[in-house]
Amino acid sequence: MRVAHVVSLLALSAAWVAAAPQTGNSSPGSRCTNLLNTDAKQLPSPATRFESAVANAARAAQGEGPAVPAHCEVIGLIHERVGFNSQRFAIRFHMRLPDDWNGRFFFEGGGGSNGNLGAALGNLQGSQRRNALQLGYAVVSQDSGHDNTINNDPNLNGTSVFAFDPQARTDWGYNSYDQVTQTAKALIRIYYGRAPERSYYVGCSEGGREGVLMSQKFPAYFDGILACAPGIRIPRAALTQAWNFQIWAAVAKAAGIYDRDGVPFVNKALTDEDLALAASAVLEACDTLDGAKDGMVLNFEGCSQALVHPKLAAVTCQGGKRASCLSQAQVSALERIISGPRDANGEPLYSDWAWDAGFGGAASRGYFQGWRSWSIGDYEAASVSSIATALVATSSAASSTPPEPVKAFGPDAARYLLNVDINTVMAKATATNRGTFPVSTWDLMNMGGTDLSAFRNRGGKLLIAHGVSDPIFSVKDSIAWFKSVNQANNGNASAFLRVFPVPGMNHCAGGPATDQFDAFAALVDWVEKSTAPERIVATAGNATPWPGRTRPLCLYPKHAQYKGSGNIEDAASFECR
Fold it and tell me: Does the N-terminal peptide bond of residue 402 adopt cis geometry, omega within 30 degrees of 0?
């Protein structure tokens, strides 16, 4: 069935190419304007409308804005309709077609629950300063079928209200990426007079899930996929955040710390100094496993709770809580969270997490703020708040079958997480409703499948980079998925799927880590030169204790090991083994 699906898609693509006018010899400006007059019959979906097509001159970098080359900028909509609660929905896309095109296509993945059109500049991930548009790629981004400005109801889960609409759920799950890819490739053919030679999908977090989705569900679309910190099992990862919230809330409750709304103040369950103490304990236990005492845990798989626990015990308060030690409740909570959530029968619900130093550090540097901002929230906040709190509560409730209403602002989201039964939520995430929601959120969003044979057989390459200190999606879940795919491919998955853990890195970036690396260039070399990456050199940013330090990111299951001599700040002094 899958092979037939791929063949039919290729046949349709060929038909669109044949129908497209040969406009490649006209001026970029006129070609750009003429896109507004494109006959819908030349596009994959006749239900496509263009909002704008503007020829932009080259522009130098301005403030935070990057330099951009001369290009045609297009904004369009696919499948406009009226849906749940009379809200207007559409799949909106944003595309930039450079005058000096390199013959390649770049799909920029989304993030969170999407709903943002995206800049269509082509974020290369790995904290790279340049982007795909600057490199000559035709770039597209999209909102996955809902708009956070239009589709937003504060009394019905805020920007997650789209999940009450069955078609919007489907667009978010997979359909929008299919529709936009087909439309973008058709526009490239119309604008340049030829199809792209190579196509790439790049994203992190939800965008990483989308990349894995493409390798499984639409294997003919992309030659190379860079999926950073992919949410492979998003519904279960979301449940984990609720599990974690309840554990930290118990710590705050035991200490008698409540916010202004009377909710246990999760943000204050740990101070910055507490996080630094915990990180120091991890380093004391595992820093030298890689042969170098350098403030990094490069051999993270060798760092176990059996090694860390005695070091945490050494900084546990004997008596009342003091700034110089961790309370027993804090240590127990941290160990439970790293061990991962379990259901009522004691079975794992998601994954465990790596013991790493990415959640702590010197408060003056702030490089660890990504971990606490995502997981427990800023200590100085006036009420319970973290990136995960509102996002997980509103989206999980809305994605249940049937959907549950939760107010997006105020204490409701925190109270939802505080009182929700993990087992009940999982059951609702896997439930269906024949009349309205025939497909569960779990079936829409789970990317844990292991059949990538169609992607593999056409020569596709999938590269994953994942922070070891990611508090949202566990690097161990990505590794477990790789192992499953590897087993399904008789131990040969590395021919098309490679994983590069990034020690110390938080969610997509940040942390005490060498989080600046060009995984995209490695992917392109793999696709176009058949040079399979074994190591990727990464650099530490200015916010870390070691600006300019380099380390090799090693192909899993290898890790960087100090050779025993040489400059400890230089990647050349480390080998992957």
Answer: yes
Q: Give buried/exposed letters for 392-422 (b at 16+ CB in 10 A, else e).
A: bbbbbbbbbbebbebbbeebbbbbbbbebeb
d(CA 11, CA 484): 32
Looking at the fold, whether 281 and 402 belong to one and the same domain comes out as: yes
The reply to whether 219 falls in a domain is no
Q: Is 160 a catalytic residue?
A: no
Q: For residue 250, what are its two tokens?
A: 């118990």
For residue 284, being part of any structural domain is answered with yes
Q: Is residue 375 part of a domain?
A: yes
What 3-state DSSP class applies to 532?
coil
Among candidate residues 74, 83, 80, the one with its CA nearest the CA of residue 55: 74
Final residue of a structural domain among 196, 219, 246: 196
Residues 6 or more apart whose CB falls under 8 angstroms from that of 167 comprise 81, 83, 89, 145
- Count up the domains in the chain and report the number: 2
d(CA 101, CA 97): 7
Largest CA distance in the chain: 79
- Active-site residue 470, yes or no? yes
The active-site residue, picked from 205, 280, 395, 440, is 205
Q: pLDDT tens across 254-308, in order?
A: 999 999 999 999 999 999 999 999 999 999 999 999 999 999 999 999 999 999 9
In this structure, is residue 379 part of a structural domain? yes
Residue-level pLDDT at 10:
36
Domain end residue (candidates: 399, 429, 459): 429
pLDDT in tens, 379-430: 988 899 888 787 888 888 888 998 999 888 778 889 989 998 888 888 999 9
Active-site residue, selected from the candidate residues 507, 515, 559, 573: 507
Can you tell me the mean pLDDT for 447-463? 97
Instruction: Give this prediction's pTM.
Output: 0.93
Indicate if 5 belongs to the active site: no
- Rounded CA-CA distance 133/141 in Å is 12
Domain identity same for 190 and 265? no
Tallying the residues shown for the chain, one arrives at 577
DSSP per residue, 134-148: TTT-EEEEE-TT--T
351 lies in which domain range? 236-429
pLDDT in tens, 498-507: 999 999 999 9
Give per-residue pLDDT as tens, 64-81.
789 999 999 999 999 999
Of the candidates 223, 290, 412, 470, the residue annotated as catalytic is 470
